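Thread: "does anyone have the structure for this chain?"

Original post by V.I.:
We have the sequence but no experimental structure in hand. Need at least a predicted one for the grant figures.
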Amino acid sequence: MRKKLTKIVTTISDIRCEVDFLSKLHEAGMNVVRCNTAHMTTDSINAIAENTRKVSDKIAILVDTKGPEIRTCFGEAPIKFEAGKTIKVKGDKKGNSTAELLYVDYEGFVNDLNVGNQILIDDGDISLRVTEKNADHLVCTIENNGSIDTLIGDGKGNDVHRAGRKSVNVPGVVTKLPSLTEKDKSFVLWAIDNKIDFIAHSFVRSKADVKEIQDILDEHNSPIKIIAKIENQEGVNNIDEILECVYGVMVARGDLGIEVPCERIPLIQRQLIRKCVEAKRPVIVATQMLHTMIKNPRPTRAEVTDIANAIYYRTDAIMLSGETTYGKYPVECVQTMTNIANEVEPAKDSRNDIPVPHVNGEISAYLAETAVGASRELPIKAILTDSFTGKTARYIAAFRSPVPVYAFAYEPRVARELALSYGVFAEILGESKSKTIREKIENLISEGNLNKTDVIAYIGGSFGTGSGTTSLEIVTVDNFLKKIDKLND
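Reply from O.Q.:
Generated one for you, tokens below.
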């Protein structure tokens, strides 16, 4: 069976994270587990990390910070909204929301808003308009019917209620929320202690927002990589400086589609993907990719086309949120994404490839481009490389190889970091480079991924030196194994 090259990120809840469940998602095509800390504590997230590691040491874990976001507070279920009626809104994270008084978790909410401002709840599903401002609360007119209570499945055939903790957006309003909350800091420290792979920082507006997290990581000498979530116009405007200081980017279309006119999202998505590919940074497209499959067993045609277009645009990864945290068909969602990727990837038109510049004449970038170019012109079945840092494999991914890239990593962490890179399948090596690479190639043969007569491209350096990428060799698998045997003699 063909290996999909596009990676899949799935959001996992602490109420549904059993090893068997995660194993099924992994078998269906999941590469990265995402934990949304807006709905968790450091205690509740432990089970997700522990169970993920039990499934595979190649699955990366991404912890999503809350960032300067606002959410509704828990309350009675359901909280229904009727167009034309009014509701009070107050900022108090300890408040208990009702149909008459809606609490949000930002204490300064009332101060930052004025009469005429729009408040959008749950990715814009509910719209309120501020008609009166008081010292401690706002009075708002409800502009459409809706509810912040949703009847959902628990993955075991049961329907359950989950109310509250819905997103709140105020388009055009600059809030005074800090980029990194105290809760975020506690999760960053937890991620450091638990050797998590990625931190996705919400609502990144500039490189200064990234620096707040990087300073904490540097203080603890942590190798955790930062993914910047682009969710507003300021982040879009400053994407170049943001890319200079992050590992990758998430195009978080939920809040982005509220903060900017929704008709601009396709263009922004394509622009951000292009910027990331040019900078050789992994990029994730997220939000509502299979939203209807939260309740329904099949996607809409529009959703299938949305996923296909993200792949055509050259994204590294696509992401599921509610579909896998509480939806009725989580495994089917991952399998649907895998099926779409397998259908779309071979049909991509090379004329739409994004030119990727070399970086200061780097040898590894040049060799990566040459190997990918050769794989389009010659009967090359795979590109192989070994890596201490993962950089060469990421460069090959940036040039979007049409064939699988097998990266032999010396550290499990590096292998997991490559779980976000297009077309890269990482294998973890032991201390003996040449002997272990031979074993990994033999495994690829026994698994049916390679034959001894297949032609491969190998990018690497001198065996055992770790001195960087210096050469490209195009050779049959059999002859490459013979070369390794000579080095081992």
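V.I.: this helps a lot. The mean pLDDT is 90.
O.Q.: and The radius of gyration is 24 Å.
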